[in-house]
Fold this protein.
Amino acid sequence: MIVFKTFLKVVNKCKIPIILYTVILVFFSGFNTVTNDNSTSFVATKPDILIINQDEEEGITKNLIGYIGKNSNIKTIENEKEKIEDALFYRDVNYIIYIPKNFRKDFLNFKNPTIEIKSTGDYQASLAELLLERYLKVANSYHTIIEDEDALLEKIDDTLEVETKVEITSKLDTSALDKATMYYNFTNYCILAGSIYVICLVLSTFKEEKIRKRTIVSSMSHKKHNRYLLYSNGLFALVLWLFYVVLSFLVVGDIMFSIHGLFYILNSFLFMICALTIAFLIGNFLIDKNAINGLVNVIALGSSFLCGAFVPPEYLPDTVLKIAHVLPSYWFINTNQTIKEIEVFNVDSIRPIIINFSILLLFSIIFILITNWISYRKRKIG
């Protein structure tokens, strides 16, 4: 009980850093909600097009202008070179179509008249180009077998009116999953930093000469003392993890009540165990309290940057990600990214997750073995 009371006194001194980590976590989660307002709906956009027609607006020419106008925003600008170039430069229009003189007559006489264009080169200009190419391709194809202009225009209209139905078959709430993934990726830093800071501070406090001598002269055995210390630190890590899990239900929302949320929680629990073993390993040979802040920055902050806790892993260089494979944080974050992409949970889809879980447990076992070896060496030397 004395060990536990002393532990609580030390933890009480660490409340400010833990609160700070939590505030940063909530801030970044809220920021992610504002900047990543995604939806699963599909909305077609229309490019801004300027048509300069030098031909008579009738027949195939009129039909072409009508089709372009139906699928784009037709802009009206004076036919002056300087004003047209300014409109293109300032993106008032994305695409300019120059219909040459005698276009209709030359087209019907199989002379393949050339339509000149000017483009901003952006995605809307590409869409405008697809519209023009689609019309000319359909018109040329039918003109080889249909010479009568009225019949030709009717066939062109019938073909171009056929639209492809876009149906989104995925039922995933990508916006909520992105938010949950970002939240749990960032907990990599919070859990790791909080565990290392508090546990190392506790262990270094119990290593102080006064406390160590009192422990030695007390009736409590060394094994019992260490066992209480282990339970206390484990309880702190568990409470810290539970706090961030409960917070995720408030910050992330209903997605946490789904099977996706369950896997996010399970993944974070395994990482919490791994973070606990890392903190014990460091605290086992750490004596100077002043070095704790530096270790938090190097280990927690460094691994978070390298493994994609702050920046999505897909934006990181391949070289950085290859180096990150040696860190537990990489497998924790990689699992979160995998969970986000799973639509149906079955044996095949969760296999990569199980592999990552096993790797996290393997890291924990390795850290425990190294900690026991260091403790054994210290007792032997002592």
Notes: Residues 347-381 form the longest helix (35 residues). The CA atoms of residues 255 and 261 lie 6 Å apart.
